[in-house]
From TrEMBL, chain A:
Name of the molecule in the record: NADP oxidoreductase
Taxonomic source organism: Sunxiuqinia dokdonensis
Database matches in InterPro entries: Thioredoxin-like_sf
Source species, domain of life: Bacteria
From TrEMBL, chain B:
PANTHER family: NADH-QUINONE OXIDOREDUCTASE SUBUNIT F
Protein species of origin: Sunxiuqinia dokdonensis
Entry protein name: NADH dehydrogenase
Transmembrane feature ranges: none
Family: Belongs to the complex I 51 kDa subunit family.
Keyword Metal-binding found: yes
Keywords tagged on the record: 4Fe-4S, Iron, Iron-sulfur, Metal-binding
TrEMBL record, chain C:
SMART domains: Fe_hyd_SSU, NADH-G_4Fe-4S_3
Location of the 4Fe-4S ferredoxin-type domain: 186-215
UniProtKB keywords: 2Fe-2S, 4Fe-4S, Iron, Iron-sulfur, Metal-binding, Oxidoreductase, Repeat, Ubiquinone
Keyword Iron-sulfur: yes
PANTHER family the UniProt entry points to: NITRATE, FORMATE, IRON DEHYDROGENASE
Species for this entry: Sunxiuqinia dokdonensis
Name listed for the protein in its UniProt record: NADH:ubiquinone oxidoreductase
CDD domains named among the record's database cross-references: fer2 (cd00207)
Lineage: Bacteria, Pseudomonadati, Bacteroidota, Bacteroidia, Marinilabiliales
Length: 131, 597, 583
């Protein structure tokens, strides 16, 4: 390790290493963040949920959008895997089915960035999957 | 650098380590590796989460799932269910004792709801053995700010304005102490961190050093900058091996990163820290005794003045602060005095860490804003009294604090209120007692501790406490007289009035506060020959109720001294002259025929 | 100098900043009682651990009571030394001390001289309200000092003397709380430790916890044994202090009364250690000149400075702490031992008394002399040169036992031949005296000229470390003087590093020299007493007609008849010794 020689060095290092623990901070304070829960049960994983999740993580990070991406169990929409639940801060959660990479890109471009709903929403009668 | 998608935070505090958290961590690592997930999911040991009652704790981020009482056998299920499939392992969640519902997120748990974590901010959050995690969470930015933007005077002013007071017990304004030390002219000055945590049951300093050692290092460097010292010493008890090891690792890393040593951050300011080991004498928490111990002398206090700020270690001006005090410094510098002073009460700003112990459901380490009431701490955070018993008393401030009754439950906790109530803040021990505790025995118990830990230098503490203890012994043995109660009070006042250091000056507090608050119990002992809580063996009698006794002979058979006699199927009898009051018959009787008289 | 205004017991006063409440109070006639506190003014020796808490006073605005001994005055301070709160606390604290103290005052060695007893009387303690367990320790007996720690009140004076003043480091507080006690490390016996037996712990102990080994019984038995010839020698410092034991003012010279008392006690011959002191000067002075002249002749191996060797505690000190320097001190025995050696040879022959029938008793201001007389090298076939060494206090004890009214005794002379002495030998009793005596003789022997001025004021005083250069007729001789072993240590460290500028150094273990010895009447912290004894010593010197050791006619005779000349083989055998590495 090279020595930190100035305050600027320290700040630079901080930015570099911040992401190491950012995940934990996000986890502690999720309410002001865009939250994406990826259904990662057996059926989801089989349909490529892992790729979808990785795509969200990488793409959002790439575009510098702060979001909390977690996995969750089976949402019960096995016919429409991979499914994700997207919660914009202060908004009701929305569930999308058949989310492959292309769909993921569309959701990022439209729903997340422009707040426009995208096709493929699965209408649900409950509020969130936690309840 | 590889960014992990998920973090498994395993508590690496001393308590959880004793409960195999090391094995839990290794299991996780092995099981992740078997599944090829080691580069996606990070397992780290953090400092203490505070919820020791339910340890070992495993927290999963970013899911914010909080698993309690995890055993090494549970790791496979957590990996396969939670990590791989995203399904929460519900049986490992915390169950709210009141609603019986399971809670997955710690912030929804009553234990954490009312907590505000400043000193403990990084405990259970970062890996204490990784300086980068500390830096990533604003670490060393306060030191950077001081060196780059602030003069020592300005930095001290922030500390002064924040209203921070010493967390080691005395409650002396920290900024003022720094200012006094700064103004004493001397080429050599020292910063000393008092990590000689001695209160039985208190472990906040240990937890901070185990969970966030860099905060102490950073704060000591800031203090060095402010008072004009280039040398720091951490006086830590040798019984804290994990804290010592983490601190050593942290010191090494800080030096490697150039955050200790010569010309820190190119500012021209140099500072380094050495560790000194204490042998665990309680009195060495007193700052003059601590300094003598560091100098290789007998650890006993000397009269102040001169204060260490004037003449301390090796006769040089020395600023001594406790670990928790230091842990508050970086956030204050970063966020400002105004932020800090909005937390707390008028004269006690910020938060205080308490170690909850005794007959309370959630034993552990908590940090709450000053001004939180005892009721909130005991019932909301602490989860109330164990086994549904009634609250009787809470003892704050370590062995020389006072025992407060339920009348004080709604008292907001701060330095001055606790003093006014006849107790003290101390270093933050909080021990809860229920109706089964005999307050005379409790007073005796605490006095035994101070008796043991007195250095013996001054008469009142050396002999006075011995005599107090002998009187209490006499009372709990059933030989007390009403005059003994007067003697207890008079002698206690003289000891408080004449002792040399804080240990002696506060040692009679448990006696005085129980005399004030539980006089009826003392009187029952000396006037009626009874111990209302049934704790004082000499004062209780086991008798057999003829009506209930079936003559089953079980008691006859288990009595170790042959004090019980009687015919089969007819009531038995206990010979009081032979009975040693071991209570075996009482516990074993199936018919509740044995009574305590 | 910044001045502070305050009131004590409603009396306003102005004192210097930095003054303690105790000193301030004393300046207006308010005598706040103290027990652990002790201040030897001007010697830089102060014990104020603030431990006993007897001196607590009430200070307006202060939460608790303040110990007067270590609380500095502050502007506007209002002190109440006898408020009911302060008096009650003070009495309670004393009761607590008494509750952990054996109540055997009537038979205690310190009875009548005990500061704790005085305090109980002063505060009118009539009942001890808080009784309980008392601490018990094993009694520790050594050749010179007895430790009876049941009687220790933890004033820590002995510890301060042993560590800070003497830098011997044997006594310190060990254990905690009620079990705390002052002890050698690991509770070892004193005679296994590096204790020098200087006796300064005994000199300052307020109670009977530290006392000297009592040899009065043995001396009384010897005196009543008709088959024994019992002779006595008295050290120079005894005559300047013994009177105090009989109510005479400090500084009263009682040389004549002492001789009379000893004769009445039944000693067959009453001699003077001063005679042997003159003999010491002859041997030590000659040794000094020998080494000096070798050095001046260019011998680089010669050991300089030469150090005096009269003080047994000092000898034991360097044997423990500076064994590497053991060939530097003079090999001359101390006057006590020279006396014993000559008495049991020269004098015994003269009187035709067998060695084993001659009992030599010495009266010393010192407890270490008891140890010195017991050293193996000072005995012949197990028969010691000096059989018993009593302290000044023990002498007073047997004088009382013999129903002698000391104050009314006539002045009597010492017996001859070993009772004749010079002024030079008398001043052996004070710091600076041995070296001054040596200078008087060495000057004349070296230069062959007669000294015109005998009073070397530059060598006198109470400073712990002093130095002077004496002109030996053109040859400057650098003299160092240290009293107190801590000061001696500084000079030894210099010698060790080769930085010492001295040719000769006098060392005495006790502050003030033998006048402040551990066997003298208790001074109870009053340094004025030591000054008065010192003054008495110098006045005795002044009153002598012969003031140079080499002019003592009986010494000359001793050499003529018996020893030959200084440093002769016989002198070596009888008057010199060797030192041992005890580290």
């Amino acid at each position: 390790m090279n020595k930190i020689k100035s305050l600027a060095d320290l700040k630079k290092l901080k930015e570099e290493v911040q992401s190491k623990i950012k995940l934990r901070e996000k986890g502690d304070n999720p309410d002001n963040l865009i939250q994406i829960k990826v259904s990662m049960a057996t059926c989801g994983i089989a349909s490529g949920a892992k790729d979808t999740m990785n795509y969200f993580i990488e793409e959002l990070d790439h575009q510098g959008i702060d979001a909390l991406i977690t996995q969750t169990g089976c949402m019960g929409f096995c016919y429409a895997e991979p499914t994700i639940e997207l919660t914009m801060p202060g908004k009701q959660p929305v569930i999308y089915g058949y989310v492959d990479k292309a769909k993921a890109q569309e959701i990022i471009d439209k729903h997340i960035k422009l707040n426009e709903l995208v096709d493929g929403i699965i209408p649900v009668s409950y509020k969130t999957i936690d309840e | 650098m590889a960014d992990y998608k998920m973090h498994l935070l395993v508590c690496g505090g001393t308590g959880c380590k004793a409960a195999q958290s090391e094995l839990i961590k290794t299991n996780f690592q092995n099981q992740l590796a078997e599944r090829g997930l080691e580069n996606e999911i990070q397992v780290i040991h953090t400092g203490c989460f505070g919820f020791c009652e339910q340890g070992p704790i495993v927290k999963i981020q970013p899911d914010n799932t909080f698993y309690v009482s995890v055993s090494p056998d549970d790791t496979l299920e957590i990996i396969d269910e939670h990590v791989v499939k995203g399904r929460i392992v519900e049986r490992l969640l915390y169950t709210d004792p009141n609603t019986k519902s399971q809670i997955s997120e710690s912030k929804n748990m009553d234990f954490y709801k009312k907590q505000v974590r400043i000193a403990l901010r990084n405990c259970g959050f970062i890996n204490p053995e990784n300086i980068e995690e500390y830096i990533g969470n604003d670490g060393y930015s306060a030191l950077g700010k001081c060196l780059d933007e602030l003069s020592p005077e300005e930095a001290i002013k922030i500390i002064m304005d924040s209203g921070l007071r010493g967390r080691g017990g005395g409650g002396f304004p920290t900024g003022l102490k720094w200012d006094i030390t700064r103004k004493v002219e001397n080429e050599q000055k020292y910063v000393v961190c008092n990590a000689d945590e001695g209160d039985p049951g208190a472990f906040m300093d240990r937890s901070i050093l185990e969970g966030d050692p860099h905060t102490v290092i950073e704060a000591m460097a800031i203090c060095g900058f402010c008072i004009g010292a280039d040398k720091g010493l951490v006086y830590i008890r040798a019984e804290y091996p994990l804290a010592i090891q983490r601190l050593k690792t942290a010191l090494k890393q800080a030096r490697e990163f150039g955050l200790l040593g010569e010309n820190i951050l190119g500012s021209g300011f140099s500072f380094d820290i050495e560790i000194r080991y204490g042998a665990g004498a309680f009195v060495c928490g007193e700052e003059t005794a601590l300094i003598h111990s560091m100098e290789g002398k007998r650890g006993e206090p000397t009269f102040k003045p001169p204060f260490p700020s004037q003449e301390g270690y090796l006769g040089k001006p020395t600023n001594v602060n406790n670990v928790e005090t230091f842990a508050n410094i970086p956030p204050i510098i970063n966020k400002g005095a105004a932020w800090f002073s909005t937390i707390g009460t008028e004269k006690s700003k910020g938060t205080k860490v308490f170690a909850l112990a005794g007959k309370i459901n959630n034993v552990g380490l908590i940090e709450v804003p000053m001004g939180t009431t005892l009721r909130e701490v005991i019932y909301d955070i602490g989860g109330g009294i164990k086994n549904g018993r009634q609250f009787k008393s809470v003892q704050t401030g370590g062995p020389s604090g006072g025992c407060l009754t339920k009348d004080f439950l709604d008292t907001p906790i701060d330095y001055d209120n606790l003093l006014a109530a006849g107790s003290m803040m101390g270093s933050g021990g909080m021990i809860v007692m229920d109706e089964d505790d005999c307050m005379v025995s409790i007073a005796k118990f605490y006095l035994e501790f101070t008796l043991e830990e007195s250095c013996g230098k001054c008469t009142p503490c050396r002999i006075g406490n011995k005599r107090l203890h002998e009187i209490l012994e006499k009372i709990t043995n059933g030989n007390g007289t009403p005059e003994d109660l007067t003697k207890l009070r008079m002698l206690s006042h003289v000891i408080k009035d004449t002792s040399l250091c804080g240990l002696g000056q506060t040692s009679p507090n448990p006696v005085l506060s129980t005399l004030d608050n539980f006089m009826d119990e003392y009187e029952a002992h000396v006037k009626e020959g009874k111990c209302p809580a049934g704790q004082c063996k000499a004062l209780l009698q086991y008798v057999i109720d003829d009506e209930q006794c079936t003559g089953c002979t079980l008691c006859f058979r288990i009595c170790p001294v042959g004090a019980i006699s009687g015919e089969k199927r007819s009531p038995h009898y206990i010979d009081q002259a032979l009975c040693i009051k071991c209570g075996a018959c009482f516990e074993k009787c199936k018919f509740n025929a044995i009574k305590i008289a | 100098m910044e001045m502070i205004n305050l009131t004590i017991d409603k009396k306003p006063l102005v004192v210097k900043k930095g003054t303690s409440i105790l000193e301030a109070a004393s300046s207006i006639g308010v005598h706040i009682p103290t027990l652990c506190h002790m201040h030897l003014h001007d010697m830089n020796i102060e014990n104020k651990p603030g431990g006993c808490r007897v001196c607590v006073v009430e200070v307006t605005g202060r939460r608790n009571l303040a110990p007067a001994c270590c609380t500095e005055v502050a502007e506007g301070m209002e002190v109440r030394s006898h408020s009911i709160r302060a008096v009650n606390a003070r009495r309670t604290v004393l009761e607590l001390i008494l509750s952990d103290h054996p109540a055997d005052c009537l038979v205690c060695a310190k009875s009548g001289n005990c500061e704790l007893q005085d305090m109980a009387h002063h505060l009118g303690i009539r009942e001890i309200h808080y009784q309980g367990e008392q601490s018990h320790y094993r009694e520790d007996t050594s050749p010179a000092i007895i430790r009876e720690m049941d009687k220790c009140i933890l004033c820590r004076r002995c510890e301060m003397m042993c560590n800070e003043v003497q830098t011997v480091g044997v006594l310190s507080m060990i254990n905690r709380g009620f079990h705390a006690v002052v002890s050698p490390a690991f509770e070892m016996n004193l005679d296994h430790s590096s204790c020098t037996y200087c006796g300064q712990c005994v000199a300052v102990c307020p109670t009977g916890a530290l006392t000297e080994v009592d040899q009065t019984g043995a001396v009384i038995r010897a005196l009543s044994d008709p088959s024994k010839t019992v002779i006595v020698q008295t050290a120079p410092a005894v005559r300047a202090a013994l009177g105090e034991e009989f109510g005479l003012p400090a500084g009263t010279l009682v040389t004549g009364k002492m001789a009379a008392a000893l004769r009445r006690l039944g000693f067959d011959y009453v001699f003077d250690t001063d005679f042997a002191a003159d003999l010491t000067i002859m041997e030590e002075g000659t040794e000094l000149l020998g080494r000096l002249n070798k050095f001046l002749a260019g011998d680089k191996d010669v050991k300089l400075p030469i150090l005096t060797s009269c003080c047994p505690a000092w000898v034991k000190f360097f044997e423990h702490h500076f064994p590497g320097l053991k060939d530097i001190p003079s090999t001359a025995r101390s006057p006590q031992q020279m006396f014993g050696s000559i008495a049991k040879t020269y004098f015994a022959d003269k009187m035709q008394v067998k060695r084993e029938d001659l009992v030599v008793v010495s009266i010393m201001p010192c407890v270490a002399k008891k140890y010195e007389s017991s050293r193996d090298e000072f005995a012949v076939d197990g028969n010691p040169d000096v059989d018993y060494a009593l302290t000044t206090r023990e002498l007073a004890q047997i004088i009382n036992l013999a129903n002698i009214d000391f104050k009314f005794l006539p002045d009597e002379e010492f017996d001859q031949p070993m009772g004749e002495s010079t002024g030079a030998s008398v001043i052996f009793g004070t710091t600076g005296g041995v070296i001054e005596a040596a200078v008087r003789t060495a000057y004349e022997l070296q230069t062959g000229k007669t000294l015109e001025r005998l009073d070397f004021e530059e060598l006198r005083g109470m400073e712990g470390l002093r130095k002077a250069t004496i002109d030996f007729d053109g040859l400057p001789i650098n003299i160092g003087i240290a009293h107190g072993l801590g000061n001696a240590r500084k000079l030894l460290e210099e010698i060790k590093t080769g930085a010492s500028e001295f040719h000769a150094i006098e060392i005495m273990s006790c502050p003030g020299g033998c006048i402040g010895g551990g066997g003298q009447p208790y001074h109870h912290g009053d340094v004025e007493i030591l000054r008065k004894r010192q003054k008495a010593i110098y006045s005795e010197d002044q009153s002598k007609t012969i003031r140079k050791s080499h002019e003592n006619p009986y010494i000359k005779k001793l050499y003529q008849e018996f020893l030959g000349e200084p440093l002769s083989e016989k002198a070596h055998h009888l008057l010199h010794t060797e030192y041992f590495d005890r580290s």
